[in-house]
Amino acid sequence: MGETAARSLRADAERSVRAILEAAERLLVEEPGASMEQIAAAAGVARTTIHRRFANRQALIEALASSAARQLAQAVEDGRPDTAPPLVAMHRITANVLQVKSAWAFALELPADPDSEAAVLQRDIAGRCITVLKRAQADKLIDEAADLDWVRRVYYALIRESLHGDADGADPDALAARIIDTLLHGAGPRA
Question: With a threshold of 0.85, does the pTM exceed it?
Answer without folding.
Answer: no
